[in-house]
Structure formats: structure tokens, C-alpha cells
Amino acid sequence: MVRKLVMFCSLVLAAVTLQGCVMSSVPFQALQVQQDEALVYLYRPESIISRGIHFSAILNDKETVGPLINNAYIPIHAKAGVLKVVLQKNSFPKATFDTAVYDNLEAGKVYYLKAKPALFGAYTLVKMDTAIGKAEVSLTSYYQ
């Protein structure tokens, strides 16, 4: 009897946990850009390369945002001016993959930065033009 009760509780706990995972993603929704800041969408398109690896982004060597998982995006609200984005793997040991620097972000504008999969599980950060970036990021989801 105790064994059946433990099994039942385990199944209920697993169901609740999985439901929370499924409900934590939101399909892409364009955000309004504030006039005093720039908006950068950092996104990672669907890929079989390094699918289970989570990344974070370090902004201007200070703030960490993430996780950036497969087929996901992170909106970055940045002040006008310089923005340095470092893509880092969220596992032990931490590994830095690539760095992108925007020298002159303009307030009120939207930018698109793609974490592009490369050979042997590496990733590069690619600044995308608006039309392609908007089309690609619209296929991703935001994970909380």
C-alpha cells in the first residue's frame, strides 16, 4: 500500500513539473521600443547542434541574461551607445564562444543578434539585418 502511494505521489509530482516546463515558454511577441533605449533581440534558431546546451549572455562585462536555449530569444533593453555581448556556455567549465560589439546603438531602434551554430558545437554571434532578423526571431520562443 505504501509503495502504491509513493508511486502515485511521484507520478503527480512528475506531471506537475512537466506542466510547469511546458507553460514556461511564450511564442515570440514583438516588444515596444522605448524612445530612450535600443532593443536587441539575441536569438538562437532551431538547430540539432548542441541542442541541450544552455547559454547566457554577459552584457558590457556586468549583467548576465539568459538562459538562451535552442529555438529561443532574449530581449535586451540597452542604453544608446556601446553594447558588448559575450555568449557563454552555462555549464562547468564555463566557456566563452563569441563576442559582438555594437559601437553605436541608437535609441528607439531594434537590432537582431543571432547565435549561429558552427562546427564542433561552437557558436558565433552574427549581427543580422532587420528583415532577416525579424523573420528568424519570429520563429522562436521566450523562455522564462
Task: Just name the CATH architecture.
Answer: Sandwich
In which order are the strands of the major sheet placed? Answer: 5-2-8-9
Number of helices: 2
Question: What name goes with the CATH superfamily?
Answer: Domain of unknown function DUF5300
CATH class: Mainly Beta
SSE run = HEEEEEEEEEHE
Unreliable stretches:
15-23
Class by helix and strand content?
alpha+beta
- The oligomerization state is single chain
Average of per-residue pLDDT values = 86
The CATH topology is what? Immunoglobulin-like
Q: Outline, from the CA principal axes?
A: globular
Q: What is the number of beta strands?
A: 10
Please write out the topology.
Layout: H1 2-22, E1 25-27, E2 37-44, E3 55-59, E4 63-68, E5 72-79, E6 81-89, E7 95-105, E8 110-117, E9 123-128, H2 130-137, E10 141-143
Describe the structure in your own words:
With 144 residues, the protein is an alpha+beta fold. The chain has a single domain, classed as Immunoglobulin-like, CATH 2.60.40. 20% of the residues lie in helices and 47% in strands. Strands 5-2-8-9 form a 4-stranded mixed β-sheet, with helices on one face. Strands 4-3-6-7 form a 4-stranded antiparallel β-sheet, with no helix packed on it. It has a two-stranded antiparallel sheet with strand order 1-10. A hairpin with a 3-residue loop joins strand 3 and strand 4 (63-68).
